[in-house]
Automatic annotation (TrEMBL):
InterPro entries: Rieske_2Fe-2S, Rieske_2Fe-2S_sf. Gene3D superfamilies: Rieske [2Fe-2S] iron-sulphur domain. Residues 4-105 form the Rieske domain. This is Non-heme iron oxygenase ferredoxin subunit. Keywords: 2Fe-2S, Iron, Iron-sulfur, Metal-binding. SUPFAM superfamilies: ISP domain (SSF50022). It comes from the Bacteria. Pfam families: Rieske.
Amino acid sequence: MTFQTACLVDDLSPEEAMLVELDGTDGAPVPVALVRDADGAFHAISDICSHGQVSLSDGEVEGCLVECWLHGSQFDVRTGQPVQLPAIRPVPVYPVQVDGDKVLVDIDGPA
């Protein structure tokens, strides 16, 4: 696993999301929605909605769900599974570690 620094712990409040672009294995940036749930835990999922192809980090976070702002699809940030239509396909989920004040994400490893 290759963890990369995504942000600092204090960069995200509970029930907030942000876009981070991490280095893919081919050198191309990979858009990741870094989400802090209502309990303060960090999660990383693909930033691209599997239905509308828009940024999930621009959506509302409630509990462990992030809502796509375009059509209202909701995804569980722990599993990537859609829980609200119109999305029916999950989004990729990435492993997250907190190391001191840094939030690290591994876009190459399974969650």
